[in-house]
UniProtKB/TrEMBL annotation:
Belongs to the NlpA lipoprotein family. InterPro entries: Lipoprotein_NlpA. Pfam families: Lipoprotein_9 (PF03180). It comes from the Bacteria. This is Metal ABC transporter substrate-binding protein. It comes from Paenibacillus segetis. PANTHER family: D-METHIONINE-BINDING LIPOPROTEIN METQ, D-METHIONINE-BINDING LIPOPROTEIN METQ-RELATED. Keywords: Lipoprotein, Membrane, Palmitate, Signal. It is a lipid-anchor. The keyword Membrane applies. It is found in: Membrane.
């Protein structure tokens, strides 16, 4: 009877061990496997990192999973379909956590990809006409980001306490050109350039539409304290935020090899930012 109980206890222990081992990123004799979810041009970058010698030296088997849609990507991370994701700004993460009652965590900064103001009608901001229509992304983080950029360009003035993560057009206190605002699916930005006077487009989407923010926009973001909410981050769940393999991803992104690859393929539009997460939280 005692022997039977002993074997039963060992069997239960073995099952628990297997369950625990199956959670999160996986380790083996060949190294740790980490699944990273991404979209757009970031998929290309992470595939390069996955195949790099630096990843092999770190004993990381990086599997890149392309998932289109910010909310879908964050949900996949929350539910453990991927271990970490690479696509979003700090403001987008904060907004998602608030709206979804989630607790995803940023573990490293990667880059600032400037948002730009584009037009098919004007060659400069000074030419913008009275009563013009401006298209803004319809998700909270990018709506606020676009409004902040319009203020930086001198087209509007926002409340002093404007929230860079959740602010809306209702926070405009001065609109000297009487601009009209239209919310759009931000992925359609390049397609509506000819239909509106101005459109705010993030650079990943702009590049997919054949636009270069540094060359084709009328005005674009610059790195400063005012744009720190737009810095992109690597994101995971709170229980994985101290995983050594996941933390290593930030180092791999900022390695000399990766940055050389990005410079050669993205014309300087992904400006590297290597800051502690505490910088974003201030």
């Amino acid at each position: 009877m005692k022997k039977s109980r002993l074997w039963g206890g060992l069997a239960i222990g073995l099952v628990l061990t297997l369950v625990i081992a199956g959670c999160g990123s996986k380790s083996s004799g060949d190294g740790q496997t980490i699944v990273i979810g991404s979209q757009g041009s970031d998929v290309q970058i992470w595939k390069h990192i996955a195949e790099s010698q630096a990843a092999k030296d770190a004993k990381l088997n990086i599997e890149v999973k392309e998932i289109n849609g910010g909310v879908i990507l964050n949900n996949a991370t929350k539910e453990g379909e991927v271990d970490v994701n690479a696509f979003q700004s700090w403001a987008y993460l904060v907004s998602y956590n608030k709206d979804s009652n989630a607790n995803l965590v940023a573990v490293a900064t990667t880059y600032l990809e400037p948002m730009g103001i584009y037009s098919g009608k004007f060659k400069s901001i000074d030419e913008v006409v009275d009563g013009g229509t401006v298209a803004l992304a319809d998700n909270p983080a990018n709506t606020a980001r676009g409004l902040s950029l319009l203020q930086a360009a001198g087209l509007i003035k926002l409340k002093d306490d404007f929230n860079l993560g959740t602010g809306t057009v209702n926070d405009i206190v001065d609109n000297p050109k009487n601009l009209n605002f239209k919310l759009i699916d931000d992925t359609t930005g390049p397609r509506v350039i000819q239909d509106v006077d101005l459109v705010l487009i993030g650079n990943t989407i702009a590049m997919e539409g054949g636009l270069n923010v540094l060359k084709d926009s009328l005005f674009h973001e610059e790195i400063s304290v005012d744009t720190k909410n737009s810095i992109n981050v690597l994101v995971t769940t709170s229980d994985k935020q101290n995983d050594p393999g996941i933390l290593k991803l930030g180092e791999l992104y900022h390695s000399e090899d990766t940055q050389k690859y990005i410079d050669e393929n993205f014309d300087g539009t992904k400006v590297p930012v290597e800051k502690p997460i505490s910088y974003l939280e201030q």
